[in-house]
Specification:
303 residues, mainly beta, 22 strands, seven-stranded antiparallel β-sheet, 1 helix
């Protein structure tokens, strides 16, 4: 199904007919404390229900879906304070930015939308840190499901080893967030999590698997949506440990550095590949598994 895209110089909007299904903001205007970085927000299912949340009051650095990394050696590309062993959360004035440089490809055709983007990671004190190439694609699978495929390769351009980690690798239990992070609507609080191991909630935190799905309810309308997230077998620590919360808010992140540090030597590159399928209604576990396979196939096509 043909999708349309519109680029206004700050954000790319992707529409199917009269329905905007997502917007990718690549030149954000957020404060430095929020680690300005590109994000996908808002996102809608094909029934027109919003399945994301922007800048919630409890964590203003959460923005729809964004690549967000809280513990990149001494730097923070997540936003807010940084968790340090023995100190807790500390405002270290180290909130870096992921800065758009250019799109080397931005196309829309009968197969969907594809973008290839170059970015520089800049520390709060103005130093070049990492360079990144990210690619994403949006495809419609059916009348009730579309897929966002996402791949990133970021390279350590410093002269030092940068240890990638998380608050958990710094000593905080079950706080292994960092990576391709989604924040769900308020109404998705106390939603349902599906994995290959079964159905549940917050106890799914830290479970390993190739995919994880989150079902949430919408206010005002009698409707639900399911988001199905995939990891890739070549990602670091695959099968990944999942960071997932249903309370006090809805959040999902395939977290490659959940409880395992990854040292990046100068010149090293880390590649992460993920997809998320946005589905009208409740897929159930069996439907989520089938959708995960379809989303994984879309991710493979992205390359």
């Amino acid at each position: 199904m043909t999708l349309q895209l519109d680029d206004n110089g700050t954000a790319v909007s992707i529409t199917k007919g009269d329905l905007t299904i997502l917007r990718y903001v690549y030149r954000p205007d957020n404060a430095q404390f929020e680690s300005p970085r590109p994000y996908f927000e808002p996102l809608y299912d094909l029934a027109g229900n919003q399945v994301s949340l922007y800048r919630p009051h409890d964590h203003v650095w959460h923005k729809g879906i964004a690549l967000s990394l809280p513990n990149a050696g001494p730097e923070n590309f997540w936003g807010g304070a940084t968790f340090r062993r023995g100190k807790g959360y500390v405002d270290e004035k180290n909130d870096g930015a992921m800065v758009h440089q250019e799109f080397t490809e931005l196309t829309s055709d009968e197969n969907g939308v594809k973008a290839v983007e170059r970015l520089d990671w800049i520390t709060q004190d103005g130093r070049h840190f990492f360079s990144e190439t990210r690619t994403f694609a949006v495809t419609v699978l059916s009348d009730d499901t579309w897929v966002l495929s996402f791949t990133t390769a970021f390279t350590n351009d410093t002269e030092n080893t940068v240890v990638m980690g998380s608050p958990t690798t710094e000593g905080r239990d079950n706080a292994g967030y960092g990576g391709f992070f989604w924040r769900g609507p308020r109404s998705f609080t106390e939603g349902t999590v599906y994995t290959a191991e079964g159905e549940g909630g917050d106890e799914k935190m830290g479970e390993r698997g190739d995919w994880l799905a989150y079902r949430g309810k919408h206010d005002s309308v009698d409707a639900v949506s399911t988001l199905v997230f995939t990891d890739h077998p070549e990602n670091p620590t695959a099968p990944v440990k999942w960071f997932v919360r249903t309370t006090p808010f809805a959040a999902v992140c395939p977290a490659p550095f959940f409880d395992t540090e990854l040292p990046m030597e100068p010149g090293d590159t880390v590649t992460l590949r993920h997809a998320v399928a946005v589905c009208n209604g409740d897929t159930g576990i069996e439907g989520a598994a089938k959708t995960a396979a379809l989303a994984a196939a879309e991710l493979e096509r992205l390359g």
